[in-house]
Amino acid sequence: MAVHRERGWWEEYRGTLPQGLLDIAELEWHADRLRTAQTVHLPGLLHTEDYARAVFGAVLPPLSRLEVELRVTHRIQRQQVFERYEPLDYLGYIHEAALRMQFGGRKVTHDQLVRLIEASERDHITLRVISVERGAFPGAGHALLYAHGVVPQLDTVQLDSAHQPEFMHSEAQLHKCQAHLDWMDEAALSPKDSRDFIHNIARQL
Fold it and tell me: Which of 116, 108, 39, 37 is nearest to 79 (CA)?
């Protein structure tokens, strides 16, 4: 973003995956830090292969096996942001509903929840759960990714849609999304309580 010009790993997928997926990978790679909010799916950057495969397998119209596998491989490669010399600072808010959705069945979901617990123990990854007991909350219908740039003018928000990712950059849009995330910060469980919460759901599977 602004200063990076090297050819990214995502370029190998150009022409085989939708442009929006490549844009997300590039946005994550160059972000200074990320904040996300998930209400149905669990955070894409922390998916296991089987969970990602179940998510892409539920797309309509159905994707071919090759299209699914390309998307799974690309999604797993996005996790490189946590393995580089300076790992990405990540904060994810997860609604309880997303934790209980069984994409791929009980075992796949259980393994995915264990993956979240393990990830949350890393210094640069923080996960916080919003309980259903909190009731209504702003932005409930959207998965939200807020990428903080190296300077505020490069901040970008990405929203999921049924057709393709939507990117927003205007000051008003960014302010609204910041307000949603600030609300979640007040409403969510602490990182430790969130880890225990996820563990208790995993034990039920």
Answer: 116
Helix-helix angle 65-77:19-30, to 10 degrees: 10
Residue 61 to residue 184: CA distance in whole angstroms: 33
The whole-model pTM stands at 0.93
- Cα 192 from chain centre: 20
Report H helices in the chain.
19-30, 49-56, 65-77, 96-100, 106-120, 171-187, 191-203
Element (H, E) at 138: none
* pLDDT tens-digit series, residues 167-191: 988 999 999 999 999 999 999 999 9
For residue 72, give the amino acid letter.
V
| CATH match of 13-203 with 3.30.870 | yes
Q: How far, in Å, CA of 47 to CA of 45, rounded?
A: 6
pLDDT in tens, 130-148: 999 998 887 777 789 999 9
Q: Is 20 exposed, middle or buried (0-12, 13-18, 19+ CB in 10 A)?
A: middle
